[in-house]
Structure formats: structure tokens, C-alpha cells
Amino acid sequence: MSFVHHSSGSHCYTLDDCSAVVRAIQRMHMDSNGWDDIGYNFLVGEDGRVYEGRGWTTLPAHSPVYNYFSHGTCIMGDYMTAAPEEGYIIPDYELFGHRDGRCTDCPGDVLYSIIQTWPHYSFREIPIIC
């Protein structure tokens, strides 16, 4: 099981800019949320790179209850009214939007509509935790 998030923050298009956004998200997760580290397993920038958060083997902190048996990937940027520019995000697993399991607008209306068209998006209903 995997959840797609958006950072609802700054977009980034270069290694330097995306690295700075990852560090800002990490600071926010640690300072504001009180987590040990960034909550996501991976983050994707519009520079075409995947940035490692907690990686594959460390328990994430992206969707309470689901953290124990899922991975969280954050697409950096705000996708409430626009889609990611590169279009390279292709899943090969059971995929959910963050809002499928949590009371949130994440991963943004436009990105959510897009991921629902991907071959492995799951329309299976799962409990929504608020």
C-alpha cells in the first residue's frame, strides 16, 4: 500500500532548490510535528529526482494508522489547481491519495484526479482516519 502526498508548498526545479525544499519539510516535520525525521519515505521534485526521506526500511509518519503497512511519497509543490510539470510519476503498486485514508485535501484536487487514472490506483475503500 502506498500513499501519494503533495507538500502544498514551494515547487522546485533544480537540485539546489529541491534539496532546500526537502530540508524545509524535514525541519517542519521535526520542529512543528515533533517527529524524529521527515515523515515521508520518498519525495519527488519537478527536477525529475527522487529524494530519500525515511527510505524503504524505516517506519514512516505520513498517515496515522496506515504507517505500519504503507509507504508515503510526497510530490513537492502545491497541486490544488495545477498538475506536476514533468509527468514522469508512474506507479507500479496499489496506490492511494492521502485523502483516501485521512481527512485532508492532500494531494491536491488536480493531482488526485490524475492519480485516479493511473493503472494501479486503488478504488478500494479504506477507513478514513480524521
Task: List key phrases describing it.
Lysozyme-like; 130 residues; 5 strands; single chain; 15% strand; alpha/beta; five-stranded mixed beta sheet; 2 helices
Task: Kindly summarize this structure in a few lines.
With 130 residues, the protein is an alpha/beta fold. Helix content is 18%, strand content 15%. The chain has a single domain (2-115), classed as Lysozyme-like (3-Layer(aba) Sandwich).
Explain what the structure shows:
- With 130 residues, this protein is an alpha/beta fold.
- The chain has one domain (2-115): Peptidoglycan recognition protein-like (Lysozyme-like, 3-Layer(aba) Sandwich), CATH 3.40.80.10.
- The chain is built from two helices and five strands, in the order E-H-E-E-E-E-H.
- A five-stranded mixed sheet has the order 3-2-4-1-5, covered by helices on one side.
- A hairpin with a 5-residue loop joins strand 2 (42-44) and strand 3 (50-52).
- It is globular, with a radius of gyration of 14 Å.
- The relative contact order is 0.22.
- The model has no long low-confidence stretch (mean pLDDT 90).
